[in-house]
C-alpha cells in the first residue's frame, strides 16, 4: 500500500502552486502505479487533477515533444486527458512531476477490439512528424548474445527461459530495420490498458509518455498481437473501415512487437536480479517475467495471426 507521507503532501502543494491548480482541498489520493511512476489524484479549488510522479527524472525537451503530439492528437479528435503546463510554460516540475486533468473511467470494463482499432486509425491519421529516429527498444532485437547472457545471469526462471530461448532467437531473425519506412510520432503503448472507456461516454487514450518515432503499421501489428485472435481481426477490420492508412502484410511488420517483447523480458529479468532495486520493484519484475515466459511470443502466433488477417 502506498502511504501519503508528509513529503508527498508538500510536493503536491508545490505542484498545485506551480501548475496554478488552485488550493488543495485535502491530501492527495493514491490512484495507480505504472512502470514509469505513481499517479495521484489531487482535488483543488480549481478542479480534480492527475499528478504523475515519475520514478526517474525526464528531460523537459522530451516531455514537450510528447505534449506536442498530444495536442495534435486532441485537435484531430482523439480524446485524452488534457495536459497542464506550469506558469512558466513547462511540462515538468523538477523533472519528476507532470499534471493532467482528471478523467473518471468505467471500472472493470474493457474496450472492444473494434473500439481499439477505430481509435488507432484516428491516431495514425494525425501524421505528426517524428523527432529523431526510432529507439532501439522498438527497432533492434536483443540478439543471440544478449539472450545467452541473460540466461547465464541465472534467476528462478532460468529453466523456463532456456526452454524458450530457441524461439526467442528465431523471433529476432524476423526483425527488420525501419530505415526508409514511413516513420511518424506514434503513441507506442496503445492497448486495452491505455485505451479506456470514460465514465461520461466514449473512449479515452491514456499514458502518452512513451510516444516517439515509429512506423504506424508496426505499431498496429503490435497492438493486434496483444489481443485474442478474434478481437485482433475485429480491431483490424475497424481500423481499415475507420480510414486507418496501414496494412499488415508480412512477418517483418511485427518487428516492433518482437523488439519490445524481447527488451521488456530482458528489462524485467535484470530488474528482478538487481540488489539496487526496491523489494516492491523486484517482486513486480519477477511476476512479469513469470507471466511473459508462461505465454511467450512465438513465430507460430505471428503466422497464425497473419493468416487470420488475410481471410476475406
TrEMBL record:
<dbReference type="Pfam" id="PF01636">
    <property type="entry name" value="APH"/>
</dbReference>
<dbReference type="InterPro" id="IPR002575">
    <property type="entry name" value="Aminoglycoside_PTrfase"/>
</dbReference>
<dbReference type="InterPro" id="IPR011009">
    <property type="entry name" value="Kinase-like_dom_sf"/>
</dbReference>
<protein>
    <submittedName>
        <fullName>Phosphotransferase enzyme family protein</fullName>
    </submittedName>
</protein>
<feature type="domain" description="Aminoglycoside phosphotransferase">
    <location>
        <begin position="39"/>
        <end position="243"/>
    </location>
</feature>
Amino acid at each position: 500500500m502506498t502511504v501519503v507521507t508528509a513529503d508527498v503532501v508538500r510536493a503536491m502543494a508545490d505542484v498545485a502552486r506551480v501548475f496554478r491548480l488552485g488550493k488543495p482541498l485535502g491530501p492527495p489520493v493514491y490512484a495507480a502505479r505504472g512502470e514509469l511512476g505513481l499517479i495521484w489524484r489531487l482535488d483543488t479549488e480549481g478542479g480534480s487533477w492527475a499528478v504523475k510522479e515519475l520514478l526517474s527524472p525526464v528531460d523537459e525537451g522530451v516531455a514537450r515533444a510528447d505534449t506536442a503530439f498530444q495536442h495534435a492528437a486532441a485537435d484531430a479528435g482523439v480524446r485524452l486527458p488534457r495536459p497542464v503546463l506550469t506558469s512558466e510554460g513547462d511540462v515538468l516540475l523538477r523533472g519528476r512531476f507532470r499534471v493532467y486533468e482528471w478523467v473518471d473511467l468505467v471500472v472493470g470494463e474493457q474496450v472492444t477490439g473494434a473500439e481499439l482499432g477505430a481509435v488507432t486509425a484516428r491516431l495514425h491519421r494525425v501524421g505528426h512528424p517524428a523527432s529523431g529516429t526510432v529507439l532501439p527498444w522498438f527497432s533492434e532485437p536483443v540478439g543471440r548474445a544478449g539472450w545467452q547472457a541473460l540466461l547465464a545471469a541465472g534467476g528462478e526462471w532460468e529453466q523456463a527461459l532456456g526452454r524458450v530461448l530457441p524461439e526467442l532467437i528465431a523471433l529476432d531473425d524476423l526483425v527488420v530495420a525501419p530505415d526508409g519506412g514511413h516513420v511518424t510520432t506514434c503513441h507506442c503503448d496503445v492497448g486495452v490498458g491505455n485505451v479506456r472507456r470514460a465514465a461520461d461516454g466514449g473512449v479515452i487514450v491514456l499514458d502518452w509518455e512513451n510516444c516517439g518515432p515509429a512506423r504506424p503499421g508496426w505499431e498496429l501489428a503490435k497492438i493486434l498481437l496483444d489481443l485474442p485472435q478474434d478481437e485482433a481481426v475485429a480491431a483490424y477490420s475497424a481500423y481499415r473501415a475507420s480510414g486507418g492508412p496501414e496494412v499488415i502484410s508480412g512477418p517483418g511488420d511485427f518487428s516492433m512487437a518482437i523488439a519490445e517483447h524481447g527488451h521488456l523480458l530482458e528489462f524485467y529479468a535484470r530488474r528482478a536480479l538487481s540488489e539496487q532495486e526496491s523489494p516492491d520493484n523486484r517482486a513486480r519484475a519477477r511476476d512479469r517475467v513469470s507471466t511473459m515466459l508462461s505465454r511467450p511470443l512465438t513465430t507460430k502466433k505471428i503466422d497464425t495471426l497473419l493468416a487470420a488477417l488475410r481471410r476475406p
